[in-house]
Amino acid sequence: VIRPASFCGTVGFKPTFGYISRTGIMPQSSPLDTVGTYARSVEDIALFTDAISAFDPRDGDMTSSPKPSLAAGLATPLDRAPRFAFVISPAGAVAEPDAIAAYEQFASSFGARAEVVVTQLPSEFDGALRLHRIVQFSDIAKNFGAIADKNPDAVTEKLKEAIAEGRTFSQADIAAARAERDPLYDALRPILINYDAILTPAAPGPAPHGLAGTGNPMFNALWTYLGMPCISLPLLKVGGLPLGVQLVAARGNDAGLLRVAKWLYPGNGRDA
Length: 272
Known about the structure:
α5 packs across α6. The chain has one domain (2-121, 188-264): Amidase signature (AS) domain (Amidase signature (AS) enzymes), CATH 3.90.1300.10. It contains 11 helices and 7 strands. Helices cover 39% and strands 14% of the residues. β3 (83-86), α4 and β4 (115-118) form a beta-alpha-beta unit. It is α/β, with parallel strands linked by helices. The two termini are 17 Å apart. The longest helix is centred in the middle third of the chain and has 23 residues, at 128-150.
């Protein structure tokens, strides 16, 4: 959701894990699969998400607790300057230099309008992307392995490679990767308490050339692993191509995230 939105110059929202039903969708990885929405504006994102987020008991990861209306939450604007924690994340090594420069310039451009603090994630996050990979690829092997074995000519080499890697992980590896999710989230609480949102890259750069791939998802993987709500806003361009700015908030704070997003991107998308 976040990476394609960044590439296409539109708003893309991935809510808290379990917010929207996945019934009818072929699963890739149940602990990670999250339905999101695209729209031209934050207001439309709120309306769209409200319309499709009713509780569905068929999806065992959905919560039955009532959700506040995201659209109604946007009716009350922020009454103070927001605080952002500017985080590059462990995925910074795969980012393109021009993109990182654009993000750093953007983060330093607010002046008195907002407080932006360059923030390092705790050292526990150094191996977080590996944990996400173990969870994702082991589930890909489980969900698609038999299909690929039976129809090897009908699947891509990239999928075959993911299945092969997923089959290398032991049950102990998988259990440990799943178990680390909540402790890592807890390590983020000081940041989530002190800031309105994490401000971070949505993608390592603009959309790649050609049709060979859809770009590197590493700037989204950490937040997906942790089940946190994220939104990409079409605020930057590099080389004439769109590049999204990603905001991330605490689990369940979807309404608060959209309020901050609207403050940052009040437009209707006509110029995206």
